[in-house]
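Hello forum,

I keep getting stuck at the same step: I have a sequence, I want structure tokens, and every attempt I make locally crashes halfway through. Rather than fight my setup again tonight, could one of you with a working pipeline run this one for me? It's a single chain of 229 residues.
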Amino acid sequence: MILIHAQSVSKTYQTGEISSTALKNISFRIEAGSFAAIVGPSGSGKSTLLNLIGCLDRPTTGALTVCDLDVTTLDRNAAAAFRGENIGFIFQDFNLIPVLTVYENVEYPLLMVRNWPKEKRHERVMQMLASVGMEAQADKKPDQISGGQKQRVAVARALVGEPRLVLADEPTANLDHDTAYRIINLMKEMRDQYGTTFLFSTHDQKIMQSAEQTYLLEDGQLTMQGGAQ
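Reply #2:
Ran it on my machine without issues. Output:
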């Protein structure tokens, strides 16, 4: 099953009379359950592409289908609802809310987009914290845990709403070598356990080596590097 299908997607930004093309007529497909990476140097358009897939922006031209829906047709409210139901995000800076506990950070997406009763939320949050080995840290604030632990919490938060797709933008950039590999292996375990598709934007060699499907994005153009197209 194809989860992401881009056809001739381009993205151009206009600043006054100056236009800048970030993505140039790219096409690709990502199968459901994939552990895939878009790699390339800084400024190559990786984050732009993830923003399009995550419905944070729209392509200038082309067709983009995510989770069986043409996302280019969504207005702001519909895009927010779609993200809440289908997509989880993991960021290189973790983006945890500092005034909330570990438990509350993971619970937050459920409060925002899911109308679950408190008991069901509690069960799901504790299940996810146990899955990433952070249940003992549930009452701590983000400044009381390590960088690797913060990224574990971010993984739990991304998966707590049972998304079909997780978009991870440079998720290992701020982690040391050993911690980065532990986080990558954890995400693979979560993919195997929950069937979630993971798509990374990265220039980290560790993720490149671990990805089962890899695309190179350079100067706004995408080429297949490994895996089945």
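The radius of gyration is 17 Å. If your local run keeps crashing, start a new thread with the error log.
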